[in-house]
User: Fold this.
Amino acid sequence: MKQNIYDNEIFFKGYTSLRNSGKTYNDFIEQPAIKSVLPSLDGKNILDLGCGAGDFAKYCIENGASKVVGIDISKNMIEYANKENNHEKINYICTSIEDLDLQNHKFDLIVSSLAVHYIADYSATIEKVTSLLNKNGEFIFSTEHPIVTARKKMSNWVDDNEGNRLHWALDNYQEEGEQHWYIDGVIKYHRTISTLINTLINKGLVLEKIIEPQSIPTGLEKMPKLINEKRRPSFIVIKAKKSSLER
Ligand SMILES: C[S@@+](CC[C@H](N)C(=O)[O-])C[C@H]1O[C@@H](n2cnc3c(N)ncnc32)[C@H](O)[C@@H]1O
Assistant:
């Protein structure tokens, strides 16, 4: 099932106002981690899967990329990206990752920030990514950490009677599949670390780096609760490369 919660007007408004606050998990944890593993972007042809408002696409151009294609299932997001992060070297396309059909296109780098956990068929996604990469091309993506997606309720923090946080209760880890989010009808998909990694390997990618990021120091000043990332990670960032032997 393809999901498009970002075209729900109330959700979209809330999301964009949160992102525009500049005080989010993305700003202090996820984006710094993604950027820390980027190769040189000079002259690169880049695909951003689930590009959202286009900030990352713009960042790539500002850092030397020759061309970026940003795709997103949400009309709202693509409109916003075209308005706020428009550039002659960026092409935003409103389509889902599942339906994306870019035959005859190849990319040096494919990036996907926090979109993969919305996709039901991870294996097909990785197969598509591999087919769209040039030889030696790289794939960098972030997704919610399996420690966090293995849950039946919104939060697995356990507090004592005085409200002191005791621990994160990891449970149902091996039970892959749909996890219902706090918004009705929104599904995120839980996958184990081995599924995330072995699928990449099976589809012909070579693992280069994994990060389980914590907050950067500014984040801890501006959002003290990010200290909890030391106790359990919210995200995982994975970098893989297409081998020069693959077609
Ligand atoms: C958490 S937002 C991240 C946006 C952007 N990557 C960023 O980091 O700012 C997730 C994005 O993935 C998009 N998305 C979710 N499911 C998708 C799908 N099946 N195909 C394409 N985009 C999808 C959403 O519309 C949303 O823009």
Remarks:
- The mean pLDDT is 94.
- The pocket of S-adenosylmethionine is lined by residues 2-3, 6, 26, 50-53, 55-56, 72-74, 77, 96-98, 113-115, 118-119 (CB under 6 Å).
- The two ends are 30 Å apart (CA to CA).
